[in-house]
Amino acid sequence: MSGFGDPRARVVVVGLAPAANGGNRTGRMFTGDRSGDWLFAALHRAGFANQPESTGPGDGLRLRGAYVTAVNRCPPPANRPTPAERDNCLPYLVRELTLLDRARVLVALGSFGWDGALRALRDLGNEIPRPKPRFGHGAQVGVGPYELLGCFHPSQQNTFTGRLTEAMLDDVFGRARELGRPA
């Protein structure tokens, strides 16, 4: 499954994979599941989405200045992707980033999204800082012409426990908006 959004996006959201009962069922990344409910509401509050929810491809959702994709292109068994799956899918993320030539900010959802984004940026010819930047909510690192921001994944395990709050998500997307503004 490919990502979707504004082809002129300056902000790219990189998730783990389409959820079996969300994006895989509906055909659009983060659509029709609780993670997507949190993500699209935050994108709407930050001005990237015209509406706060996404139920299916024909629901009228439009992204402005943002594009949503994932490292893996199919739902992994037991929601645990393997390194082989990541490596097989990574060229698709690299190709999307190549086509999204205005993108300057990547928001990585979770450590898997962070690691995949770093690998994709490396494959695009960017030097990854040493030591390798560690994922954390609110982490930020410059890689070539990009700023990579870390954000806890809006999964139920994070939102139900309070590990990720709406305010935390809004902070990351507010920063992404500022960093993505043309110079």
SSE blueprint:
Blueprint: E1 4-5, E2 11-15, H1 23-26, H2 34-45, E3 66-70, H3 83-99, E4 105-109, H4 110-123, E5 140-143, E6 146-151, H5 156-159, H6 166-180
Parallel strand pairs: 2-3, 2-4, 4-6
Antiparallel strand pairs: 1-3, 5-6
Helix pairs in contact: 2-6, 3-4
Explain what this protein looks like in three dimensions.
The protein has 183 residues and is an alpha/beta fold. It has a single domain, classed as Uracil-DNA Glycosylase, subunit E (3-Layer(aba) Sandwich), CATH 3.40.470.10. The chain is built from six helices and six strands, in the order E-E-H-H-E-H-E-H-E-E-H-H. It has helices at 23-26, 34-45, 83-99, 110-123, 156-159, 166-180, and strands at residues 4-5, 11-15, 66-70, 105-109, 140-143, 146-151. It has a six-stranded mixed sheet, sandwiched between helices. Strand 5 (140-143) and strand 6 (146-151) form a beta hairpin.
